């Protein structure tokens, strides 16, 4: 039960950070429209600088772990091939 509550609290906290930047049009003149469009474009292309560092760090960790697991699989394959050669 404690894990469920803790998980729900973490999700609520992280979702607030994810929605921290929104483009808001404050006026109807040309300058405000250009600022709004630039903001939307930055968010769409990911150039706004509002990336989630926790997610990117986790992705890096998982990629490293994936590399280690691939190395272990290759080592096991080599071991099994050597074992087959020994049996024959």
Give a short overview:
The protein is mainly α.
Low-confidence regions: none
Count of helix runs:
3
Radius of gyration: 24 Å
Distance between the termini: 55 Å
Strand content: under 5%
Derived structural class: mainly alpha
Q: What's the pLDDT, averaged over the residues? A: 79
Secondary-structure element pattern, one letter each: HHH
Biggest β-sheet, characterized?
A: none
The rough form would be described as: elongated
Helix content percent band: over 70%
Number of strands: 0
Tally of distinct domains: 2
Description:
Helix content is 77%, strand content 0%. With 88 residues, the protein is mainly α. The protein folds into two domains: 1-50, no CATH class; 52-88. The longest helix has 35 residues, at 53-87. The relative contact order is 0.06. The mean pLDDT is 79.
List keywords for this structure.
2 domains, elongated, 88 residues, 77% helix, mainly alpha, 3 helices
Give the secondary structure arrangement, pairings included.
Blueprint: H1 2-18, H2 30-45, H3 53-87
